[in-house]
Amino acid sequence: MLMYQPIALAAFTVVAAYTISSAGDKATVERAALDYAEAYYEVRLDYVERSIHPDLVKVGYELKPDGKYATHPMDYEGFQNMVRWYEMEGKQPDAGPKEVEVLDAMDQTALVKLTGSWGTDYLQMAKFDGKWKTRHAIWQSAPTERSEEVRKADKTAVEAAVRGYLDAIYLVQPERIKTCVDPELTKYGFWRESDEGEYSGSLMDREKLMAGAASWYAEGAPPADAPRKIEVLDVMNRVACVKLTAQWGVDYMSLAKKDGRWMILHVIWQSHPPEQTAQ
Fold first, then answer.
1. Would the CATH topology of 14-140 be identical to that of 148-270?
2. What fold characterizes domain 14-140?
3. Within a 10 A sphere around the Cβ of 65, how many other Cβ atoms?
4. Given Cys at both, which of 20, 86, 144, 178 links 43, Cβ 3.0 to 4.6 Å?
5. What pTM does this model have?
6. Successive 10-residue mean pLDDT values, the chain, 279 residues
7. Helices and strands: H and E segment counts in the chain
């Protein structure tokens, strides 16, 4: 088996464009994303605890006046400290938007786009002990205008990066991982032996991914009809998100544009879910 592994706020908008296992899951995915935003807006440490995984990996790209982007990494403790600072200073951030768009969701994992006053986050979420929490987040300042030519070129480059990732695994070409996967890759996955079984989880970095790509299909290529579906769900100036459907399951990917090149930075994946009913 493959194993990868209290202030008045602006009204929020929830855009539903996905299939999910139950109406209850739909509501809790949206609520977890709103908790992520409101932990900041309302200065609520309890919202951090209930909506964000302790192993959070987050990175942001802030557009500066000189037109360049500054990089801002953050972990769970850093998120807590940001909220604590407002609490200790007796301050609250200005009210802002908190628009939640669930780009895709399954029974165990979900991908959400959250727009706030700081910019836009792609949140990779999963169920941990039955509760939806953000495991990975990537964000950028509010996107700037791009020409149609640039938008098409970015989408093509994002697709090519994901195709390189898939081919590196399917074709047993591990060195190709270096051309499309960032050295700081964080990948977390869920698999199970049967539809009735419990999910198990695993963490993977780029080195482990390359080792897996050298072995998973070493004894035989996947069948000709193995899934290779790449869906580019959203692309902005510096970040993008993709859904990849492959033989092993579904990967939600977040990519960052670094030095002009799109690279896969965060992945959360799961085995193929049982049949779901559209809500």
1. yes
2. Nuclear Transport Factor 2; Chain: A, (3.10.450)
3. 5
4. 86
5. 0.91
6. 34 45 78 98 97 98 96 98 97 94 95 97 97 98 96 98 98 98 98 87 97 97 95 98 97 97 98 65
7. 6, 13
